[in-house]
Amino acid sequence: MNEERGPGMEALIEALYPICRSITGDGLRETLGIIAERIPLERHEVATGTPVLDWTVPPEWNIRDAWIKDASGQRIVDYKASNLHVVNYSRPVPPQRLALAELDAHLHSLPEHPDWIPYRTAYYEESWGFCLPHAQRIRLEPGEYEVCIDSTLEAGALSYGELLIAGESEKEVLVSTHVCHPSLCNDNLSGIAVATWLAAELAKRKPGLSYRFLFIPGTIGAITWLERNRHRLDRIAHGLTLVCLGNDEPLRYKRTLSGHAEIDRVMEFVLRNSEGDFEIRDFHPYGYDERQYNSPGFRLPVGSLMRGVHGEFPEYHSSADNLDFVHIPLLEEAADRLLEVFAILETNGRYRNRAPFGEPQLGRRGLYRGMGGEADPRSLSQAMLWILQFSDGTNDLLSIAERSGLPWAILRNAAERLEEHDLLERCGSPGQRERGGACAS
Fold first, then answer.
1. Residue 340 above 60 pLDDT?
2. Res 441: pLDDT
3. What values do phi and psi take at 403, rounded to 5?
4. Which of 32, 70, 273, 290 ranks highest by number of CB atoms within 10 Å?
5. Domain presence at residue 437
6. Cis omega (within 30 of 0) on the bond before 294?
7. pLDDT value, residue 428
């Protein structure tokens, strides 16, 4: 295990936690700048008003201060104490006094969790508001309160970050994570931390596939990236969104829309062969940016890895999603599983047995290894027999692993040994979007 991995992810989360992020603005730029200190991130700016698919890049939002003051002039709700106190993307509100009955229409709280501050947004509407604990809200006395939101909504740009790690193949694995939420750790500083560490780790290697990491604002960021990259989407062979990876729940994988893409099969194989509970869910059109990538015009094979499910854990979109809610060892576990997934994607493939008429004589090639008396079904010899039996050009190595129950490492070793002795040849290359037919005879 990389000893710097856990502390590095924890330090990144702690650095990003105080920042007021949104789908545009200086908080988003500051976040990308901190990530860029760790990986060579290319940052993009797309101007307000730019048409992107069926959307338009919105005005840029920035905020300096906001408050609610009581009759004595004391701040009882203060943006500087928590950036969740202000509805994200609230329009400017100059200092003014409002009766409680009028102010209450702009207040948001969680009666079921009276000590938590909710997170609310108003991205695409002319609105404003404050969020506060319900226990505080019900104690507000009738009278007048002064409110102010010192924000701007002006022409500017949408920012996002991108890193391509070029591999031996031009076929790409897309890893996408959203970076627009303010002080929320599981959703999605956990995804940012895991993606940043993976990018740094892969950048040290010469991977078999290429890896494209996206750090984007949710929905509008993915839509903007898709609009700007239509011409090269055919390179995306596999993809994942990384979200909500740090809370104390099992790893969950949400399949691509087709449900049988190679990334679906590999992710399920890895989770089934790892310790601990897990859950596989079918695709549904609710969640994160996998919705955009799987939309009918694109149909990119992008699944989603998470622990907490969008809207299903109590702390979701509230101040309880804080630094104590994310467990660094669980982020490390997610990173381990993802490296296993990438290793299989890079080495999976279809093969053709070059001696298909009966079983080839392994002994004279030094491949037998005492097979006659061998009792261990997980041995290298057994793996060779499985591969030779099923390698007719239509079965990939993953399907042999699924059927045999043998570990991936043993099957890969066996395939390499058989290739070295000219008993096996590979069909196609890693990263194919669709499984092809049999090898040419």
1. yes
2. 46
3. -80, -40
4. 290
5. no
6. no
7. 66
Residue corresponding to tokens 């993953």: 398
The answer on 370 and 359 residing in a single domain is yes
What span, in angstroms and rounded, lies between the C-alpha atoms of 216 and 197?
A: 16
Average pLDDT over residues 298-321: 97
Looking at the structure, tell me whether residues 165 and 138 fall in a common domain: no
Task: Confirm if 257 and 294 have CB atoms less than 8 A apart.
Answer: yes
Neighbours of 9 (CB within 10 A): 24
Query: Is-contact 213 175, C-beta < 8 A?
Result: yes
Q: Cα angle vertex 342, ends 280, 402, to 5°?
A: 55
- Length in residues, the chain: 441
* pTM (whole model) above 0.85: yes
Three-state secondary structure call for residue 4:
coil
Nearest to 213 by CA among 223, 198, 226, 229: 198
Rounded to whole angstroms, how far apart are CA atoms 411 and 404?
10
Full strand arrangement of the beta sheet holding 157-165: 42-47, 157-165, 210-216, 172-178, 236-242, 302-306, 251-254, 278-281
Give tens-digit pLDDT for 67-79.
Answer: 999 999 999 999 9
Overall average pLDDT of the 197-219 stretch? 97
Long-range contacts: 409-414, Cβ < 8 Å, 24+? 410/378, 410/379, 410/380, 410/383, 411/383, 411/386, 411/387, 412/347, 413/380, 413/383, 414/380, 414/383, 414/384, 414/386, 414/387
Domain boundary among 346, 367, 397: 346
- 322 and 212 housed in the same domain: yes
Average pLDDT score over the chain? 94
d(CA 192, CA 336): 15
Q: Is 310 helix (H, G, I), strand (E, B) or coil?
A: coil
Tell me which residue range forms the domain holding 143.
62-154
Residues 243, 256 within the same domain = yes
19: nearest Cα among 79, 68, 76: 79
pLDDT of residue 25: 98
Mean pLDDT of 337-358: 97
- Asked if residue 105 and residue 149 are part of one domain, the reply reads yes
| Secondary structure class of 174 (helix, strand, coil) | strand
Identify the band that residue 5 occupies on the pLDDT scale cut at 50, 70 and 90: confident
Residue 274: which residues within 8 A CB-CB, separation 6 or more? 337, 340
Residue 433 domain-assigned?
no
Strand order in the sheet with 392-396: 392-396, 350-353, 424-427
- Could you say which of 154, 178, 196 is where a domain stops? 154
Residue pair 246/186 in contact by the 8 Å Cβ criterion: yes
